[in-house]
Structures are given as C-alpha cells and as structure tokens.
Design brief:
The protein has nine helices and seven strands; from the N terminus they run αβαβαβααβαβαβααβ. With 187 residues, it is α/β, with parallel strands linked by helices. The longest helix is centred in the C-terminal third of the chain and has 16 residues. It starts with 8 loop residues before the first helix and ends with a strand. β4, α6 and β5 form a beta-alpha-beta unit. The protein has a seven-stranded mixed β-sheet with strand order 2-1-3-4-5-6-7, sandwiched between helices. It has a single domain, classed as Rossmann fold, CATH 3.40.50.2300.
Length: 187
C-alpha cells in the first residue's frame, strides 16, 4: 500500500499558487531526515521552477527546529507556506498551524488533519480510506491469501479540504474555482 503523499507536492504547490497568485517566494517546511525528503524536495523544486516561484527550504526535525524555521520564515518575508508530508509534522500539526497563522501567509498542508486543526487548506490522500484498504488486505492475508499475490494498492482519489473559518480569520479569499473543486469545506 502506498499513500502517494510525496508525489503530490507539485499539485499542492500549484494549488498554493492559485490561492496566492501574486506570491513569489514560497517556504517549504521539510524534515531533512525523512526518507521521503529527497524525492519530495526534488519534485517541489522542479514544480516551483516550472511556474516561476522561488522556493526557500526550511528544515525541521525537532520542535526547536520548527520554532527556528518559522522565525526564519518571518525574517525572509515568504509569501506562502507548503508543509512537507513527514509524519512528524502531522503529530505537531496544531503548533504548525498556529505558527502559520501568526506568519499571516497562505499555507497548504498534505492531509485533512491540518484544516481540521485550524489550517487553511490541504490536498492529499484520504488516510482513513487507505487504512480501511489496509485492513481489508490484512483480513485477506489472515484468511490465507499470500501477500506476494496481492497487488500494491495506491489511492485513486485525492481530497481538497478547505477550512472556511481559517480563511475568514486570516483574511485570505478562496478563489471560486478552488472552492468549487473542494471535496470538503469545514465551516
């Protein structure tokens, strides 16, 4: 099973560009010790170059490094924030969302957990559906199926979640085209 989270960084960057069309410098919060960091960075950098954005990397693998990264983002005067897919960030989502709010820039996250915690917008795999599929596979294996005979499953649908309360509090407007494409709007 794969969650396909890392390859979606390009799409998240495009959505952030749609949310903040005048943005020129985007902060990318990434955990440098994550095994997915290198391909995620490579893909997002290529996407940034393709749409004419400057991408500034901010590394964080610990809570003090998250604090330092956001302090550096404030000094750099970034125009938007893209948060990487590392599970460490999901665990620290409330702190990250709060810091992004104080930074007063539009931010996009990899999972719905962030908008549910007050973040602006997310685009990614529906983790609950993926875990449900993993449970089905576990059941099949327990009933005698050989794991090697089961195909690798990957998500076929991704969700765009918008937190309208966060957009109102931050003063950002969601473009109608983005709003129309959303899978869920949190009021």
């Amino acid at each position: 099973m794969t969650l396909m989270s890392t390859p979606l960084g390009q799409k998240r960057l495009e959505l952030l560009r749609e949310l903040a069309p005048k943005a020129t410098m985007i902060a990318f919060l990434v955990n440098p010790v994550s095994p997915d960091a290198v391909p995620e960075i490579r893909d997002v950098q290529a996407a940034a170059r393709a749409i004419g954005l400057e991408l500034r990397m901010f590394n964080a693998a610990t809570v003090p490094q998250i604090d330092a990264a956001f302090a550096d983002m404030a000094v750099a005067h970034v125009d938007g924030l893209l948060v990487g897919t590392d599970p460490f960030f999901v665990l620290r989502r409330q702190e990250i969302v709060a810091r992004a709010g104080r930074l007063k820039v539009p931010a996009i996250y990899p999972f719905r957990d962030f908008p549910e915690s007050g973040g602006l917008i997310s685009y990614g795999t529906n983790i609950a559906n993926s875990y449900r599929q993993a449970g089905i596979y576990a059941g099949r294996i327990l009933k005698g199926a050989k794991p090697a005979d089961l195909p690798v499953m990957q998500p076929t649908a991704f969700e765009l979640v918008i937190n309208l309360k966060a957009t109102k509090a931050s003063g950002f407007e969601i473009p109608p085209t983005l709003h129309a494409r959303s899978d869920e709007v949190i009021e």
